[in-house]
């Protein structure tokens, strides 16, 4: 039985709009791979200005990639540390807020920035153009008005998506009608019952991901631990543990109703800026719901294998109410030292700077919407101990 459409969101917009596009940093090689694999499904006439913009950007990005390539004898020898920290959680659960806070500990951690992930092929050699490229994005995030700069901590999967030619769960932001084709990139499992990935596809993702990780580690030095955040990593605990045996994970959750309302708001305010094909509202809703199912089920299954000292779970409400206290618990759990002396003062200053920040307010969900969430995300309520309301 098909899930009824219970949301309203914009799926049409100014097709000439090119700001904030997640493929702005793609090279000619990556763009050609994307067009070869998905070009037939692109609505080329409707999105001609966007396609022309991305092609022009690919030319410029290729020059930057050549410059970074010349530095490969240096960054290619870098040893990526096997103890990064991953912030896990469904989109719209507060992963960005938590990532920003952890990144404030600059003596211990290094985070990927908007510039790094936006232009992954050339960020090592092209930093001088950041002020000009900043004009291609808004000063705040479209979905929640959080500050957005080229130096803001950002999601590493944005880089992997571009470096791999859209071998990523982020590809539906461009190809929403074809969302089901990209589900195999969530868990990255060759033995998956529903969405198995081919070995060549898995290796393509790993190559793109580790290339970015190597360059990021080189940029900050091997003495820094990387702190990374991409919501889709919640489905990859098993894969990430194999790549990084000493990795630690912080999982953050939020009430399913609040997550759904925030996800719909994000779709309405941002997704239309990414499209290269015209989806329906039902397509967008299914993407939100299916993503929630995949991420939750995979995380609950695989997190059980983590040793206690490798995982800390918290809630958005706790972080929002007391960021310093919540971070203190995280540091104590993992045995990270220096919190009171060096970290707490910085976090208190950061928390004060957010005092006037106004979070989005959303209308109450309809009974039909709640019924859909209760059905499709039923395990969220039981596994994470949230009450239906």
UniProtKB/TrEMBL annotation:
| Protein name as catalogued | Sulfotransferase
Quote the InterPro entries the UniProt record gives: P-loop_NTPase, Stf3_sulfotransferase
Please tell me the species this chain comes from.
Ostreococcus lucimarinus (strain CCE9901)
Q: PANTHER family of this UniProt entry?
A: OMEGA-HYDROXY-BETA-DIHYDROMENAQUINONE-9 SULFOTRANSFERASE STF3, PAPS-DEPENDENT SULFOTRANSFERASE STF3
């Amino acid at each position: 039985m098909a899930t009824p459409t219970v949301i309203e969101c914009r799926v049409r917009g100014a097709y000439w709009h090119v700001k904030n596009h997640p493929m702005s940093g793609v090279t000619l090689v990556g763009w050609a791979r994307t067009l070869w694999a998905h070009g037939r499904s692109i609505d080329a006439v409707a999105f001609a200005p966007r396609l022309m913009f991305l092609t022009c950007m690919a030319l410029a990005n290729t020059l930057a990639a050549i410059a970074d390539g010349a530095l490969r004898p240096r960054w290619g020898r870098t040893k990526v540390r096997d103890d990064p920290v991953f912030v896990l959680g469904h989109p719209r659960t507060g992963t960005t807020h938590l990532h920003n806070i952890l990144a404030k500990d600059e003596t211990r951690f290094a985070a990927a920035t908007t510039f790094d992930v936006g232009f992954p092929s050339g960020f090592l050699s092209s930093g001088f153009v950041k002020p000009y490229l900043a004009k291609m994005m808004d000063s705040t995030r479209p979905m929640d008005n959080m500050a957005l700069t080229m130096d803001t901590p950002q999601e590493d999967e944005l880089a992997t998506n571009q470096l791999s030619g859209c071998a990523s769960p982020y590809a539906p932001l461009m190809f929403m009608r074809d969302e089901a084709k990209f589900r195999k990139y969530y868990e990255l499992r060759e033995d998956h019952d529903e969405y198995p990935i081919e070995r060549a596809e898995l290796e393509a993702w790993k190559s793109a991901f580790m290339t970015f990780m190597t360059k990021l580690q080189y940029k900050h030095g091997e003495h820094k631990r990387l702190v990374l955040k991409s919501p889709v990593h919640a489905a990859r605990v098993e894969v990430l543990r194999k790549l990084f045996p000493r990795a630690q994970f912080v999982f953050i959750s939020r009430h399913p109703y609040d997550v759904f309302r925030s996800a719909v708001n994000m779709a309405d305010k941002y997704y239309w800026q990414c499209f290269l094909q015209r989806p329906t509202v039902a397509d967008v809703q299914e993407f939100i719901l299916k993503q929630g199912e995949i991420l939750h089920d995979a995380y609950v299954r695989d997190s059980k294998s983590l040793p206690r000292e490798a995982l800390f779970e918290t809630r958005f409400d706790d972080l929002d109410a007391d960021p310093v206290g919540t971070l203190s618990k995280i540091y104590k759990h993992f045995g990270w030292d220096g919190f009171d002396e060096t970290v707490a003062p910085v976090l208190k200053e950061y928390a004060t700077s957010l005092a006037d920040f106004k979070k989005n307010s959303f209308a109450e969900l309809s009974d039909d919407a709640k019924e859909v969430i209760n059905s499709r995300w039923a395990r969220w309520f039981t596994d994470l101990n949230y009450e239906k309301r």
